[in-house]
Design a protein that fits this description.
2 copies of one chain form a homodimer. In chain A, 36% of the residues lie in helices and 25% in strands. The first copy, chain A, is of the alpha/beta class. Chain A has 3 domains: 7-137 and 315-334, NAD(P)-binding Rossmann-like Domain (Rossmann fold), CATH 3.40.50.720; 141-310, Dihydrodipicolinate Reductase, domain 2 (2-Layer Sandwich), CATH 3.30.360; 354-434, 2-Layer Sandwich (Alpha-Beta Plaits). In chain A, α1 (16-27) crosses α12 (314-334), α4 (88-97) runs parallel beside α5 and α5 (107-124) packs parallel to α10. β12 (303-310) of chain A pairs antiparallel with β12 (303-310) of chain B. Chains A, B: This is Homoserine dehydrogenase.
Amino acid sequence: MKPGGALTVGLLGCGVVGTEVVRLLREQADDLAARIGVPLHLGGVAVRRLDKPRPGVDPDLLTTDAVGLVTRDDIDIVVEVIGGIEPARGLVLAAMKAGKAVISANKALLAEDGETLFGAAREYGADLYYEASVAGAIPLLRPLRESLVGDHVHKVLGIVNGTTNYILDQMDTHGAGFTEALEEAQTLGYAEADPTADVEGFDAAAKAAILAQLAFHSPVRAADVHREGITEVSAADMASAQAMGCVVKLLAICERVPAADGNGRNGRGVSVRVYPAMIPRSHPLASVREAYNAVFVEAESAGRLMFYGAGAGGAPTASAVLGDLVAVARNKVNGTRGPAETTYAALPVLPMGETITRYHVQLDVADRSGVLAQVAEEFSRHGVSIQAVRQEGHGDDAQLVIVTHRADDAALAATVAGLSGLDIVRNVASVMRVEGDD
Amino acid sequence: MKPGGALTVGLLGCGVVGTEVVRLLREQADDLAARIGVPLHLGGVAVRRLDKPRPGVDPDLLTTDAVGLVTRDDIDIVVEVIGGIEPARGLVLAAMKAGKAVISANKALLAEDGETLFGAAREYGADLYYEASVAGAIPLLRPLRESLVGDHVHKVLGIVNGTTNYILDQMDTHGAGFTEALEEAQTLGYAEADPTADVEGFDAAAKAAILAQLAFHSPVRAADVHREGITEVSAADMASAQAMGCVVKLLAICERVPAADGNGRNGRGVSVRVYPAMIPRSHPLASVREAYNAVFVEAESAGRLMFYGAGAGGAPTASAVLGDLVAVARNKVNGTRGPAETTYAALPVLPMGETITRYHVQLDVADRSGVLAQVAEEFSRHGVSIQAVRQEGHGDDAQLVIVTHRADDAALAATVAGLSGLDIVRNVASVMRVEGDD
């Protein structure tokens, strides 16, 4: 802290989010000082190139020496909005080692190596806040970390990627195909030229890992998350969902799996997965439109909660960074620190085969008597119980649509393999999970 | 703090919420200790009657001496779940004066006398947390107090009363009338035998006052809130709303009113009101069903956020109390305290006449030419601009439905008075505000 009592912030990165952080630090200076008790002062901004025009940023603050900035004596708080693993990880670790509080918006880093970062924060007694890393401006991590600490979270079910939600919403409301909806999203700036991270579910998987760590106090990395993207979702799938009173969403799901004997409050592990699934239109997540995000939390006492808002964008993300800045600055002023993350529960991440959910299976079948009996026998053989069956079309267009009760993924996979081998099944047209109705 | 390092809690009240708090303190003891750093110990429970059976509560902890409990040397934290103004206010003030941190679930008290309580908390350096006072388990006050502190809130729009939402939802989905829906809500336990506090909007007004204080850092009391209940909402109003693609909800609205010249970020005051209003079905609040609560927040940088969950009930409310308990206990362990509430912005609450919104007006009119011209002239004379007009029925059933652009409430009231005086208007059948579509 400076002699005058101000706290000094070092900013790593000055892209869309960083520029907004600089603007808010300037425009909200009086409010921030009132709420923290001392003024916040921007001490330096580390960038890769000094010659790029950065309107609103004092050129004298710019430096290419990021390591120098995070270890500078007068810096109290480091804000990391670079993204990616390196050099972000090295800088964040160096900052905490030098006694700085750190705020990060970096989902990739938190999901790749949260345990190392949490360990360093504990070792050096440093605050590490990262509200902006999941669901932009939506205050979500703080409620999980602080409001629900006296509760017991069973499940987190979220729409955490705006690009894919925009694409699926267009497919649902306008009957667009995936390629057409993706192109529109790219034209409007909702999707990148290379949309892989979004449409293949990598972005959502990183966020799912961060949410699972927090909700279950267990180590979960992005690589542990079962991941399926939305590129295979077809207009026919959307129509099937509509026929069932459902809508297709890309969901990030983090769930405790109970022990087989029902004993033990922690369950035998956690299931963390990202895939497109049908959810009933009456579910609160179903009405999350366009590029919005929302996360649904089920806790023992609190019941069902949902948090909704803009999941990305410079201003919303910067708003989340500012909220964290006030918290860590207040901690600095009080000579204390916020709650540390721990993975004390140490629940294992279970393989996808042990995940239990419901399924919607669509089969192209021969149009003759006895088909349903054979198909039903195949489900039964693998212990998968059928909730509803519907026949559609006839002759060469005959289809069976089967919705199952809850079953584990391994049994369903075995069922699908068995169905493919039946003479009377011409093609397994689609398999989609059904969530949010239990 | 005890020599062994535990923190001791004194509980005021042992009804539905208090009993749940006792249960959670026992069942979650290990988790709470892990997160706080020291165990929480229940030191005493103040009740009115000692002879009532209280399963799960150690009878040795019970006392009728509430004043003695809140000033006892070994008590660190006081949890107040009595409700009402007195004796709760005296006990909370005595506790803070004695250096105890206080957690209250008491919306009436916070809305009646927040400023006195905030002032006492500042004077005595005591924590005062009250997450459970608004919207039950939904983490809402903490995000407003802490996550959005670096942002600038424009508007809070909420469904904060579960009873009235249940009634309106039944009227909307089953075409029930108000009386019928109220009776059903009473049978199911969603409404009290004397439903006045809910259906006349008193409960929602208290919560609106608390939200406005927090969002705008200004003193707002329940008595300052413009309040209209739902007893006049008719099946015809619901049908009109449906015809417009809207649904009727009892809304608590807290809003900055900009200065006439558009200058000044704080605006010239705040409008705080509770009334039934139409909102578009596409609005996230429209899909809040049954007795659920949800609060929509518009902030400058964060954009649109929504918080959804169970607004009442023993377990959800106790979950919110436990979240506060962990926060204040951590503060005690660290020898610090949380952010104090202030009303530094001191914005005035504006009279209802200065509130600006849109209106849906339904008139029984004579079925002859020239009617629309006369009606339109009356709106125009008071500066209220018409967005849409629709004629329904004919002859003795002829009705005009008018939807206005944004206008102030005084101008609309003058318009309605003028319309009532016109020969061709037989009756002003209904006037309802339209929210959530700007």
